[in-house]
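The protein record filed here:
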Amino acid sequence: MSLLKRNISFKIFDLLKRYAVKNDENLIHQIQSSTQTKRVDKSSKFFALYTLDLKNLLAPNDLENFKSFSFNSDDYTESIKLDRNKLIIQANKTLFKREVIESIFKQKSNYGFENPISKHSKTIIEFSSPNIAKPLHAGHMRSTFLGNFLSNIHQKLGHHVTKINYLGDWGTQYGILAVGFKKFGSFNELDKSPIKHLLDVYVKANQDEDIKSKALDYFTKMEDKDPDSLKMWSLFKKLSIRELESVYEKLNIKFDVYESESEYYELAKEYVKKMIEFGLAKKLDNNTIQANVKDYDKKFIVQKSDGSTLYITRDIAALCERKKKYNFNKIVYVVDSSQREHFLKLYKIAKLLDHKILGNLSFEQFFVPFGRITNMSTRKGKVEFLNDLITEAKLVAHESMQFSKSNYLFYFRVV
């Protein structure tokens, strides 16, 4: 605890002890633990302001008597006021700034994290999660950076964090790429620049209606474990992960686990059976299986008529299996806001399948959205490669630093 807060706490103690119902040693501890600091921008009217709710410290009659008391400032406080039941203490701003700066220099990266609050909490944070055979682009930046930031914050707060990168390597969109590669692809070009070539193929394939119809059949063959189909998929996945890891390394972002949708497609079918058993889904006349979720009006498909799985089904299986494997207390999905409905479905189904999976976790804790970056589409080839953006940013920074010799030299000493 800072010297400033300690002195303010003792001043409040001296003010309250004549009114407190229990005038004992616990009072000073209650004051110290209950007093909240608003550390905001120094231009704010809340700068260096402490607040204390008196309702739990004083009986109603004592609180009324306390309201008539006059407060004097001293070396540590500029003013003390009472607003209804809250005591508002304006600390000496000069002392406050000095203490904060000294604390930052002393504690360094531990500043603000003196007492971890969740020493035993197991937390999973899933973020970035690109599709294979496509480049990391500017649209992935927010999920990647926000997810990494949240992971660091949770770790500092004492959580045992597992960072998961969940790769999209399954589904009809992959079928479009694989069929398209047979028509537009080149193994020579694939060797030279794998991800850029696969993106070119994907863009062309999405403009070919014949390929789109064949993609469904191709994907069904994958789920039926057709060796030729899986061989091509395995090659594209290997090349993609190699490219992804090189970009993450430049950003100094490391994942604990790489998972992929393909790991869960078989288990997904088992969870569909469980949903039917629990009355959460039913088979329709056309052989598709539709979810019937309580308190969620929109109906949606969890298994196609040909028996193949969907994105939501594989996510259900992944969530349930992670609970078994990690026994997490908290799981966070860092995804763009356009996927809110998808994750609301996932949240509600998990709650109904087994309340222990998510426990008391709220949807706001479960789903952490961010604004979507618009005017980008891998189908149309409208993307900025993240690798290119990093390279360009380095060049711009380098040019800028050359204007200041001292900064330029400092940069190379640090790096």
In short: The longest strand covers residues 160-167. The chain is about 50% helix and 15% strand.
